[in-house]
Amino acid sequence: MMKQMLSNSYLFGTNAPFIEELYETYLANPAAVDPAWRDYFDKLSTLPGAGNYTGPDVAHAPIVASFAQRAKDGTLQSSARASESSDKQVKVLQLINAYRFLGNRWAQLDPLKRAERPQVAELEPSFYGFTEADLGQTFKTGSFATATGSEQATLREILEAARQTYCGTVGAEYMYMSDVTQKRWIQAKLEPLRSTPRYSAEERKRFLERLTAAETLERYLHTRYVGQKRFSLEGGESTIVAMDQLIRTAGTHGVQEIVIGMAHRGRLNMLVNTLGKAPAMLFSEFEGKHAADLTAGDVKYHMGFSSDVATPGGPVHLTLAFNPSHLEIVNPVVTGSVYSRQRRRKDEAGNQVLAVLLHGDAAVAGQGVNQEMLNFSSTRGYGTGGSVHVVVNNQIGFTTSDPRDYRSSLYCTDIFKMIEAPIFHVNGDDPEAVALVTQIAMEFRQEFKKDVVIDLVCFRKLGHNEQDEPMVTQPLMYKKVQAHPGTRRVYADRLVAQGVCGAEEPEQIIKDYRAALDRGELLYNPVLANHVREFATDWTPFVGQKYTDECNTQVPMADLKRLATALTTVPADFTLHSRVQKIIDDRRQMGEGKLPLDWGMGENLAYATLVRQGYGVRISGEDCGRGTFFHRHAVLHDQNRERWDAGNYVPLQHIDAKQAPFVVIDSVLSEEAVLAFEYGYSTTEPNELVVWEAQFGDFANGAQVVFDQFIASGEAKWGRLSGLTMMLPHGYEGQGPEHSSARIERYMQLCAEQNWQVAIPSTPAQIYHLLRRQMLRKLRKPLVIITPKSLLRHKDAVSSLEELALGQFQTVIGETDEMDPKKVTRVLVCAGKLYYELLAHRREQNIRNTVILRLEQLYPFPTEALAAEIAKYPKAKEVVWVQEEPRNQGMWYWFASRNHLVRHVERPGQELFLVARPASASPAVGYYAKHNAQQKAVIEGAFGALKSPV
């Protein structure tokens, strides 16, 4: 039995893919396989599960399973022994597939030639039992394409072709992909050409010109601005060749806009030689002569730019996104911007707008934001039809790093295998190969609307920056770098040797380019001056606007009632969950004025009025469709149908025949990348309310870099406007450290220069007017809303339809009970749900000397409104800021450091006090009993004897 199994061992186990290959070849062309196998495949229609196998979509699982079983029971013995050539034929297909799978391990990718070729037994003919005598034998090539189109070749020819295709200066990885069509497409692009490009002399001269432009600019800056940081591209100049080829190919295939994301390395080169930024403008930035029209500004290698360039397929608009030094964080920002642009064009397939993301080799593998972004790259609400990723792989990451220390994978690009994106490794010293794989990558993206990766293996001539000395930590590598003549020189010598260029021509290109730089101009500039784009967004109405709280957000009562009816109308055959049915029934009565409005109804009416007025609404977050706390129910689910089978109904999408779009997306379990995506979206679309809701407020911790580097400071650094709205649930209900605090102090610390707004609305009318104000004002500032949890259904946190129809957002809400101002001796100032607990205690204890003011907008601070409310109580000797957060957290330190409350209590004899939880290293306690004790102490302390003034 064992002997029998060994004799047929190639029929199952690890060789199953090769049997599949043979079977696929048979399906495509029965004559292309050995007669013995063809006879066997002809009989497969009787296999369970095989069905009527008339095409390439036949299920392969039962076929492969049958091979294994029949090999074990001996029924394949006669077929397997039909001829020795049949056995060898299978092994030839195994060898071909081995090169498709593993050939990249032998590819000549490193311009520095540092590593020896690894031992990969599967790539050796001897591994399959072939000898020198077999090399001249002819075999069928299966799906492996030959240059002549023949279906057979000698083993020597097959081996040579496989090595040339997969082991030259291009190393392709794609066989892990599950889609056979995509794999065959890639094979058809690489194998007939043997991965060897065939470009005209004119095209090759263009590659040389691009290399020359890249190298010459760096050297020019190095000598003109000695010692200044620029994060040179030297060693990776083929990046400019890749970008040139990508843009030209994209234009030919219908792309009209490209948004580019990249970190600082090579950014100045990209700005000048790809986007066509005038060198004179760059020089002025080096010399500090640029206009100081931003309150902060940024360093030159973080700045963005946009232009319109000519391509063989027509004009393409290029945008290089602004990016801080957080490397990969810009990537989801770019995809969000691309998604917004696609929606504006109604480009649902993603044919017209493209994201191009440039990565560093250490950063792409090391920073988790990439995994988050790749995870949502094909999901609803985030998929853009695939990005083109270019990894500028200088093989060192950062100066002191060692590949053994900055990743655990074989390649830095292995992360992209999680979404089955094909990866093309290419030697940066071969610009023609770089151009070839770039063209193939761009065409793949357009054909399959899927991410694709170019791993451009190069080196870095200088250190991490121009003041760094890499020889200290990388002596052997940098001896090779110093000995390398440069990619431009290598390619120029090659073209001269091949007669494409004259001996003096490469040097003349350098001289011409330097002369142009001396004039502050570009030798080659594809930029189209005064090009008018059809889908450009007009931000003019929002630029330079002075901040104001004033805005008319009222909507006539009749319209509110009509919209309330639409919100509570469900298709007749739609079965709601009983709890949701009760909510909808209550909302119907709210819309009729029979019940006061709760938070969910107020919020939904805000969205309804906005989409009816022509403002789109987009909400995303981990539970935002239903709402983490079961309050929103913007998406209704039929209890008798699965949600992916027409089981959803979104009332806000059925408000009006001419309404703007309403989109609500339950995002992947991610904060950083999703928030960055929404920020990018909001910076591209000023006429849409873009909302990101954290599942719990503290979950925003995982996205803090987005708040710090983009949302809070983007306008000050780059002049980028955004109306992004963030909802962060907050409130001390005894749910422990991680589910109580939204860390308000973090957002307060970032407040300056009226950069954004921070609000804690406490009623349904307040959230209604706040959301409407965010769109109706000619002002685009980010908005951080500290939203409630238990307050969502609090019996006193309700509003009337009249408050929506006739009211407005109040930055401060004064005392609501009837109190005699002459008897008031204490003023409590608080925010959020704590107000209702203080109010309940005062009513229970019948306290008549203390009023409670609600601060609904924390920033910009409502100085005049608060002063006016405090002034109503001239006999008040004590003004108390009350917060449920620990005293070292929450709003107190921000207020105290800026003297905001103190300036309102300057009357003689009036003092300011603080009531809060004790200072704590944790946002909240985890023991419920301790929480209750602390909450009780805060509430009673606000009305009891006060300690010394602060």
Automatic annotation (TrEMBL):
Domain of life: Bacteria
Molecular function terms, GO-annotated: oxoglutarate dehydrogenase (succinyl-transferring) activity; thiamine pyrophosphate binding
One Pfam family linked to the record: 2-oxogl_dehyd_N
Catalysis performed (reactions): N(6)-[(R)-lipoyl]-L-lysyl-[protein] + 2-oxoglutarate + H(+) = N(6)-[(R)-S(8)-succinyldihydrolipoyl]-L-lysyl-[protein] + CO2
Cofactor: thiamine diphosphate
Transketolase-like pyrimidine-binding domain ranges (all copies): 597-794
Keywords: Glycolysis, Oxidoreductase, Thiamine pyrophosphate
InterPro entries, sorted: 2-oxogl_dehyd_N, 2oxoglutarate_DH_E1, DH_E1, KGD_C_sf, ODO-1/KGD_C, THDP-binding, Transketolase-like_Pyr-bd
UniProt-listed GO biological process terms: glycolytic process; tricarboxylic acid cycle
Enzyme class: oxidoreductase
E.C. no: 1.2.4.2
GO cellular component: cytosol; oxoglutarate dehydrogenase complex
Quaternary state and interactors: Homodimer. Part of the 2-oxoglutarate dehydrogenase (OGDH) complex composed of E1 (2-oxoglutarate dehydrogenase), E2 (dihydrolipoamide succinyltransferase) and E3 (dihydrolipoamide dehydrogenase); the complex contains multiple copies of the three enzymatic components (E1, E2 and E3).
Role summary: E1 component of the 2-oxoglutarate dehydrogenase (OGDH) complex which catalyzes the decarboxylation of 2-oxoglutarate, the first step in the conversion of 2-oxoglutarate to succinyl-CoA and CO(2).
Protein family per UniProt: Belongs to the alpha-ketoglutarate dehydrogenase family.
Designated name of the protein: 2-oxoglutarate dehydrogenase E1 component
Record organism: Denitratisoma oestradiolicum
